[in-house]
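The aim of this short unit is practical: by the end, you should be able to scan a pair of folded records and say something sensible about each. We start with the first protein, listed as its amino acid sequence and then its structure tokens.
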Amino acid sequence: MSIEALEAKVIEWAYDRGIFAGSTDNTRWEKLMEELGEFTDAAWPDEAERNMEDVKLEAGDVLVTLINILHPYNLDLETCLAAAYNKIKDRTGRMENGTFVRDK
């Protein structure tokens, strides 16, 4: 299934459960922070303890929550990702201590 079709299913699911009518910008942002915490917990234990199924599920929960934040603004994942890529595509820089530092 395409990302667009999955995104539409998430939005339909959210409408069916009253998420847009029953939440606010603040509560949707709080949910995103909660889901980011769960993703962090799944993705960053010792490598030997990392369960990739949990990482996948928690990353998906972050995406679902992000879709629910973007939809009221008439934005979607593809549009936002394209905008971010266009912003960074010509950046140059280097890696320093595991972090990309862009040139000025």
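Turning to the second protein, read its sequence before its tokens, just as you did above.
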Amino acid sequence: MKTILVTGGAGYIGSHTLRVLESEGYLPICFDNLSTGFREFAGSFPFIEGDLGNPDDIERAFSSRRIDAVVHFASHALVEESCRNPFKYYHDNILSCLNLLQAMIRQQTKFIVFSSSCAVYGTPLRVPISEENPLQPINPYGATKMIIERILADFEKAHGIHYVSLRYFNAAGAHPDGAVGEWHNPETHLIPRLFEAALGCKGQAEIYGKDYPTPDGTCIRDYIHVMDLAHAHLCALQHLSIHGSSDVYNLGTGQGRSVLEVVHEVMRASGKEFAVDFKPRRQGDPPALVADPGKAKAGMGWSARHSSLSEIVDTAWNWHKKRHGKNP
């Protein structure tokens, strides 16, 4: 297993995964429609501009060379937008995956690593969250991830496609060399928005909700460094190559940090203080999401190694300074 098609490879997590795969001797091919990704994030990797909604584009990618496995990132991924526009999420995310799987069947590509989400758990019954928690998503984004996991299980039974589904918790941080980092348009994620405030790109940082049933009233999340996530995809491919068995794994640290804790850490890293504006809760946001990552360690030898909050924030700060061309 050497040639890997990475859908959404010009996006945040995908671009970091391209670099990790190459460092381990794989040939990653970036496939992206650039609707939310950035061409420069693909660097000098083989790049195919295409849309998973168009089967001809997918066939073009598979005909470029023999594809041994797929890492599937490409999807719409904004919780609040999914609540406003569920059709976009149910239609695009699910249809894109079905088109991709059909191409894999035709080309006899038997392995896929799927970018899932802790959003499949909704408001969990127990925290930390193990893979045995019931799947009860509270927003359309999480529901599409749950449906696709079911589709993968059905396609394995019917067509012998083996998969690993990785349920991310909160991706954060940037590549240590500053080549790629977190960049969305519009920006909705917490740490980039805080750094925009620290760099003076916006007047204040908006925090959504201060009345959650948590110690300081703000959401608690399990923040995981993007490089740890990228390495998890490598581990998943190795697991499939060696064992060929499908499975589902949580990716997190097992430690939750509140939004206000992250605010203070960003102020520490940047040396800047900025105003915080509390807004009402966003629809579809649970109070606390923290992983039990034990199964990933036992099943594919993966654990988070670079996900202390300080390392996450320090690498993100280096990226945002570079991106905005500003000194501290």
